[in-house]
Automatic annotation (TrEMBL):
Annotated organism of origin: Thiomicrospira aerophila AL3
InterPro entries (UniProt xref): ATP_grasp_subdomain_1, CPAse_ATP-bd
Signal peptide residues on this chain, from the entry's feature table: none
Pfam family name, one: ATPgrasp_Ter
Domain Carbamoyl phosphate synthase ATP-binding residue range list: 239-246
Protein name from the UniProt record: Carbamoylphosphate synthase large subunit
Length: 295
């Protein structure tokens, strides 16, 4: 089975590519550059047009069919919602591993996510579309890109300002089946972060966080891998955002259970039940980057 993954030229793409291959599938990398680390280690590779190109999705359709891609495993926020609008995927028997568009439209927008948290009594930092707080974030975006702290006047178009919460940072890796049932909920303490990417982490059996994530999953329909971001301090647990997609930091949760890529693809495509394994709580991850050389 040929599985497409995105942003294969990024520094953290190796984990996702390896997970696809270890599951016995063929990894089809993709990015906007002709050659990168992903293009070298993947079984096949597709160079896509930039997301700003008007012909992007015509190009994507042509190349997925040409390369006989059977499954799309999105991991790039810029294209995630658009993938769900491609009705031709089903016509071409290409499976998409993604949450419903109604879910994505909320959590790919930090202001809508804040409104969801407020409406459902999920503790979250105070947030505004006006420049009320020092911490400024793009409404849409990933990692730490575009985030600044300032009291200087700032053009707030497509930005939010947010109360800054201090405490212990957690990412919670979640795997939901196609009915939306969370089968794994694994809080991961972030011990090291570079450019918004987790470089060190530890799995912690924090029941307060697990119970609240389970409650949120009952409120809205997620499918496949999802990661929640929260901060815990003496006042409680504050949820910052939810990323409804596969994330590179999930490597630790895979290592502590099983290969979620294999599990969710077989579940969605072949209707297999997801195999739940005991969690190796306390496992830690330390990430390094690897160089590749070609001539």
């Amino acid at each position: 089975m040929k599985v497409l993954t995105e942003a294969s030229g990024s520094l953290s793409s190796g984990f996702i590519i390896n997970s696809i291959k270890q599951a016995g599938f063929q990894a089809v990398g993709s990015d906007i550059t002709e050659i990168n680390a992903g293009s070298i280690v993947c079984d096949d590779y597709i160079q896509f047009l930039p997301t700003s190109d008007d012909n992007l999705w015509l190009d994507v359709k042509y190349k997925l069919i040409k390369h006989q891609v059977e499954v799309v495993l999105p991991c790039l926020d810029d294209m995630l919602l658009d993938w769900t609008q491609q009705v031709w995927l089903k016509e071409c028997n290409i499976a998409l591993i993604a949450s419903p568009a109604s879910t994505l439209s909320i959590f790919l927008d930090k202001w809508k996510a804040y409104q969801f948290f407020e409406q459902n009594d999920v503790r979250t930092p105070r947030t505004s579309l006006q420049q009320v707080y020092r911490l400024l974030k793009p409404r849409r975006g990933r990692g730490g890109k575009g985030i600044i702290e300032t009291t200087d006047p700032f053009e707030m178009h497509d930005y939010i300002s947010q109360q800054k919460i201090h405490g212990v940072e957690y990412t919670i890796d979640v795997l939901c089946d196609k009915s939306g049932q969370p089968l794994y909920i694994l809080p991961r303490k972030r011990l090291g972060v570079i450019a918004g990417k987790s470089t060190q982490g530890e799995l912690v059996n924090n029941r307060q966080i697990i119970n609240e994530v389970e409650r949120i999953c009952r409120l809205i329909h997620f499918v496949g891998p999802v990661n929640f971001q929260c901060i815990e301090n003496e006042l409680g647990v504050f949820f910052i955002e939810i990323n409804p997609r596969l994330a590179s930091g999930m490597a630790l949760s895979f290592a502590a259970t099983n290969n979620w890529v294999e599990q969710i693809i077989n579940h969605i495509v072949k209707d297999y039940p997801i195999d739940i394994q005991p969690v190796k709580w306390g496992m830690k991850m330390f990430r390094s980057y690897q160089e590749l050389y070609v001539r």
